[in-house]
Specification:
The protein is an alpha/beta fold. The chain is built from six helices and five strands; from the N terminus they run βαβααβαβααβ. It has one domain (4-147): 3-Layer(aba) Sandwich (Rossmann fold), CATH 3.40.50. Helices cover 46% and strands 22% of the residues. The longest helix is centred in the middle third of the chain and has 22 residues, at 62-83. The model is unreliable at 45-58 and 124-129 (pLDDT under 50).
């Protein structure tokens, strides 16, 4: 069965469902589980990275804010895993999520299953550049489970 599972998390309901599925699989397979959240670097271009852009609504340190939000998602997911007796590794990555997932969590890196939600919280990015999930399904060299 599966021995090394990565689950991508963005705080969406679909990613929470993906986490629940990944935990069930990890328990039944005695697999190692890695929780991953990718800070989307393209959002820096959409939102700007400084308060001098002309709006006071944009945080001065947008990258730090996003990293903290990603870490919060992973902390909540880790607490869920702890409740279910699953030891996990936690990783916050930065980059274009679909590329980071395909390049860092495939067979070559030792993962035999990727679990992800069918859609996430980044609707703007999906409209502009396409679905992360669709890209991963088309380009990953490992098994991908889409939960939705």
């Amino acid at each position: 069965m599966f021995k090394n599972i990565a689950v991508t998390l963005d705080g969406s309901d679909n990613s929470k469902d993906a986490l629940a599925q990944a935990v069930d699989i990890a328990k039944s397979s005695d697999a190692k589980l890695t929780l991953v959240s990718v800070v989307n670097e393209t959002s820096y271009y959409y939102m700007g990275n400084t308060s001098t852009v002309g709006t006071s609504m944009i945080p001065t340190d947008f990258r730090s804010t996003q990293r903290k939000a990603a870490q919060d998602v992973l902390d909540n997911a880790k607490a869920y895993c702890d409740q279910h007796g699953i030891d996990v590794e936690v990783k916050v990555e930065e980059g274009i999520p679909k590329r980071v997932i395909v390049e860092s969590y495939g067979k070559e890196k030792g993962y035999d299953l990727l679990v992800m939600g069918k859609s996430g919280v980044d609707a703007l990015s999906r409209v502009i550049v396409g679905s992360t999930t669709a890209y991963v399904v088309r380009n990953s060299d490992t098994t991908v489970m889409v939960v939705g």
